[in-house]
Design a protein that fits this description.
2 copies of one chain form a homodimer.
Chain A lengths: L1 E7 L2 H22 L11 H8 L14 H17 L3 H17 L8 H5 L14 H19 L3 H16 L16 H12 L2 H13 L6 H8 L39 H18 L2 H17 L31 H17 L3 H14 L18 E2 L25 H10 L6 E4 L2 E4 L5 E7 L2 E9 L6 E19 L7 E5 L2 E2 L3 E3 L4 E17 L3 E6 L9 E6 L2 E6 H4 L6 E3 L5 E4 L8 E10 L10 E2 L5 E10 L11 E2 L2 E3 L4
Parallel strand pairs in A: 4-7, 15-21
Antiparallel strand pairs in A: 1-5, 2-20, 3-4, 5-6, 6-7, 7-11, 8-9, 8-11, 10-11, 12-13, 13-14, 13-21, 14-19, 14-20, 15-17, 16-17, 17-19
Helix pairs in contact in A: 1-3, 1-15, 2-4, 3-6, 3-15, 6-7, 6-8, 8-9, 8-11, 11-12, 11-13, 13-14, 13-15
């Protein structure tokens, strides 16, 4: 079986893809060209023009500035599939021409080193991002080739990889290095899918397996570096923010890694590559290692929004169940990375856990990184914003408002490429089975035994649990259809061709299986979507005595604009939740209303600190809105976790 | 009226004074002489010996290392009054001889600059601590003179002050500087009490009023400094930890200061001097400014333990009601400073608020800084210690255990001098009135109209509210006796000579006044000490849904050793509190027992994060111990604020 065409036609995601097309891509193009007022200049395109001798000037930007260009190209590639646009495609082609001009004769391509420190290439893999940027160009090239079949960027990239392959490896005379920031591993595996060139597979494997070996390459490399080298951000006195080798996950070889540690984005990019390699080589042992890391993350180190990285220091994982809501990191990129990882895990073993988490990510902690208009972004995604936050240095990284751009602009383009490539998460296909992972509306054509199956999936997700799947095959065919049962749903109804299905069996991997002869069939599913009061594991000390509201895949939050100041003083009461929709200022999203109480804190004298006073409560109409939509109607307090008396 | 003798004879404080005498003073002497294994070396005495040419070597230690020597002398001075000890006094005399030898001919006395940067004296008042150290030597000299009547240290100090007075002031040719770390102001006012030398008063006034004026002295000073100067801790790029002038309270002149800002210890030392100056000059306007700052601190920026400084960044105050329990600073020194300030405030205006807070400090947030044995210390006094704390960089300053010593060793000697001089807080005396502020057992002699009144106060504080005060005067005398009614007490009984008193009236300053003719009288008071469930102002978001237990002046906490792991999962139930005493491992302190529930968190699968599960609770015997006594029976979790369902 093979998907030969897939087109998203979905209420929710088509809107997002349109925003990326209409707002984000042009906006990011301006950003890359420094045309946005009041935003940090990017200089990313200019760096390439200077390297290509088309302009003069000096390099400006972070050491990984090139990657923003790559991510933009990748996003545009996916978007061109959804929305063909000759002008835009031409813009990309012209940009690729500049990149080609910029590339060194030997294949080298990193404008930071080319313009700023040409003698110091490959001397600081730990802190600088040459291999990381190369990875992003691979991804861009693969995406652009897949959509346009144009090879120029792919050729540029392959030339660069040839150079990298000559320089790095276990063979005599090669450097035994690997990237400080993982990314090229997952990218090389994607490249291998196109090129089928074993060199690309093997280089990915080399980078993965060399990591964490002794003697430690980064120490050797450091010893060789000129002492006067200016480290851009890594402080030798406080190496990797005190996190040492764990920061970049090179503390032990990957097969010995058992817990998620260090910088969250680096980690999940690496785990993604590990999962993909396990798939490509059908390596059960590698999969099991990766699954252990998966379970550690999703069961012990993940916020209900899908956010990961509970420590701002090193933007990193911290201990199991250490999940503060107001001082965490929860980088948008890390949640985007989780979707990549989840996608690959399910390709090795079908288990609804993977797409349950993927669903949690795509509807919550990823898209929270962008406003509804697509022109303001968050790097850090808090679960609590209170009025004191910005004045505390230990929480000043938690911005109370989305920003027009960032000096380190990894998150906005990362989110854009996730949105434009959302289609890759919908199906997994096996020899005689179709897995429907995400209920996102689409029209698809699947090839099966020289025949085609047309699928039309209509969905009202995430606001309503009704899904209709029409299959249309010219020839009656026998295969299994698997439907993921979302983890938030304990009540659903399935009919096949209008009748309750006998063929549907609840698989123990969390999918519903329908095994029948298919020709023209219609499946209807109704996943009930009650409002859930979710609790977190009571090992998470911050959330004891609190619940979060969730409906379907959407996690909700309270905002000051709806519920007044001092959200921490609100208690939920009972379980009478009313679901509403149709608020135009929130794109007609579903909001939740209920009755609660709020401590009459304004009635309490400002000038006492501590007393035995019994607080008076005031009844309050509590209104919750989708978490991802917070801060779209002005700034103010926000909370996800809401007080509820114990055992009520 | 005048106190002519006062001797502490108190169950609680005599034990502490003995600990300081027997354990802390010898221990700190060893520390100052680098004789404590596994502790940060101090080198403080050695620095003086080198400066005195008695030894050779180089300066070592912080820029304020000298002050530890001064605080030790001050502590010993007070202790000698309580426990005369010729050997110890001789040790101090020998040390003073060394200091005399170390002093420069012109009077200068700061071993850091003398040994390390002799050409750079007085060039960095903002960051280095010359005037601060001078202040501590003044306090030591005053204390040592008061107890021993020996003048040598006083002479040394006066000579130094003469030099400082020549250098600083508004007069032509003088530097218009003032200290970066306040301390000398309050010290000069103490010196003035002995010397009655207006120069000392005026220099204190100059330092206070010059602060915060324009043009800003620290900016002028900085512009003059050699750019290559190494700043010891203050980073020009992130001046005063980003707190700018507010850090050292020189953002505006003192009369324009309205809110407590910046480094908490600096602030309260300055406020103490302001209050004392208001007293000395009967300056109502200055008092009102100081009172505004007082109210800001105690009503909006103070923890229930008396801790202040809710931000580790800059060890500083933060916003009103921003009082996190796990990432605060609450430096021992800051709470000690609060007692100095409260003491002075009450000398201007009698208001029980001042000694209510002083009581909160002396029984909670100060003595929590030392273990019961007197040989381990805390700098930072958390209200919550959880198992993850040390692994979070944003909370790593919160040590889970007291330490043998610190490189910056301000807190242990500061606490020791507070304990040994606790007597100064007991009484305030006016022309015809005696104010009993603290119910600490003592025998005192008060002079009144050429006669003496013997007072014998017996108290079972803080464990029991019974107080017996015997007055014995040879001659019948008419004066007012004021008894502070503690803020935790809403029920008390007073008898005078066995009968309920008619003379006792409840004054509106929070004192009970008895106006009668006294000769031989016995007053008995019973302050009832029920266990209180205290709530904090609901503007403090962290404490909503929680109570703290308090009995008498003692704030309680839960420790893991008594209540098991995951203290955050405990809920208090009802209000049936049993008071127990007699546990030998806690010095027979009163502990509190009650019934609560604990979420059966161990019964919850480790491998799920979020669910709708209703937790099971297990009944639990909850045991609370005095907050100050935490971490005396091993390490583990600790909390002050405990869950209680709303409106139960």
């Amino acid at each position: 079986m093979k998907i030969i065409d897939l087109s998203i036609q979905d209420n929710f995601w088509s809107r997002y893809q349109e925003i990326v097309k209409k707002a984000v891509i042009p906006y990011q193009w301006k950003a890359l060209n420094d045309e946005i007022k009041d935003a940090e200049p990017s200089h990313a395109i200019k760096n390439f023009k200077i390297a290509a001798n088309l302009e003069t000037g000096e390099y400006y930007g972070e050491v990984f500035q090139d990657s923003d260009v790559a991510k933009w190209i990748e996003t545009v590639a996916y978007s061109l599939k959804n929305f063909p646009d000759d002008n835009l495609e031409q813009k990309v082609d012209e940009l690729i021409d500049i990149i080609e001009l910029a590339q060194d004769e030997d294949g080298y391509l990193n404008t930071y080193y080319m313009l700023k420190e040409p003698d110091k290439k490959w001397t600081n893999l730990r802190d600088h991002h040459e291999l990381y940027c190369a990875g992003h160009f691979i991804e861009a090239a693969v995406a652009y080739y897949n959509v346009t079949k144009k090879r120029k960027l792919l050729n540029i990239v392959c030339k660069y990889i040839d150079l990298i392959d000559e320089l790095f490896g276990l063979e005599e005379g090669k450097r035994r290095g690997y990237p400080g920031h993982q990314e090229i591993e997952l990218a090389l595996l994607r490249l291998y899918e196109i090129t089928k060139d074993e060199k690309h597979l093997n280089l990915a494997k080399y980078f993965l397996y060399q990591r964490g070996t002794e003697p430690n390459y980064f120490e050797i490399e450091k010893a060789k570096r000129d002492e006067t080298d200016v480290l851009i951000w890594n402080d030798e006195d406080n190496l990797n923010f005190g996190l040492e080798k764990e920061y970049q996950q090179d503390h032990v070889p990957i097969m010995k890694q058992k817990e998620a540690v260090g910088h969250a984005v680096r980690a999940v990019y690496m785990y993604t590559a590990m999962a993909d390699l396990a798939v490509k080589e059908n390596n059960q042992e590698l999969y099991e290692v990766t699954k252990k890391l998966w379970n550690d993350v999703v069961n012990k180190k993940m916020y209900i929004t899908g956010g990961i990285g509970s420590s701002a220091n090193g933007e990193s994982f911290s201990d199991a169940y250490d999940l503060p809501n107001d001082s965490m990191y929860c980088e948008t990129c890390a949640s985007v990375g989780m979707t990549f990882w989840a996608n690959k895990m399910n390709k090795f073993e079908k288990n609804s856990d993977y797409h349950n988490i993927l669903e949690r990510e795509i509807y919550n902690g990823t898209i929270s990184g962008m406003n509804l208009a697509g022109n303001k972004f968050l790097y850090v995604n808090p679960l609590e914003v209170n009025s004191k936050q910005q004045n505390r240095v230990d929480q000043e990284h938690v911005l109370p408002e989305r920003q027009p751009w960032f000096k380190t602009a990894c998150c906005p383009p990362n989110l854009a490429r996730m949105i434009t490539s959302i289609e890759k998460n919908l199906y997994d296909i096996e020899d005689d089975a179709i897995y429907i992972n995400q209920y996102i509306g689409n029209q698809s054509i699947i090839e099966y035994q020289s025949n085609v199956i047309n699928i039309n999936l209509e969905s009202k997700f995430p606001w309503n649990g009704e899904v209709k799947i029409s299959l249309d095959s010219n020839k009656q065919q026998d295969f299994k259809l698997f439907l993921r049962i979302p983890d938030w749903c304990c009540d659903f109804k399935v009919t096949v061709n209008g009748r309750e299905s006998n063929e549907a069996t609840h698989d123990d991997n969390g999918y519903l299986m329908i095994d029948k002869k298919w020709s023209k069939d219609e499946i209807k599913i109704e996943f009930s979507m009650p409002v859930l009061e979710v609790k977190s594991n009571p090992r998470v000390r911050n959330n004891i005595g609190k619940v979060a509201l969730q409906r379907g895949p959407i996690v909700y939050c309270l905002e000051e604009i709806d519920n007044g100041e001092n959200l921490a003083a609100i208690y939920l009461e009972g379980d009478n939740y009313k679901v509403k929709s149709g608020e135009s200022d929130l794109n007609n999203m579903v909001t939740i209303e209920t009755i609660g109480e709020k401590i009459d804190w304004k009635g309490v004298d400002k000038n006492y600190s501590y007393s035995e006073e019994i607080y008076k409560n005031q009844k309050l109409k509590v209104k919750a809105v989708p978490y991802f939509s917070w801060n779209n109607r002005g700034s103010g307090e926000m909370i996800v976790w809401i007080n509820k008396n114990n055992n009520e």
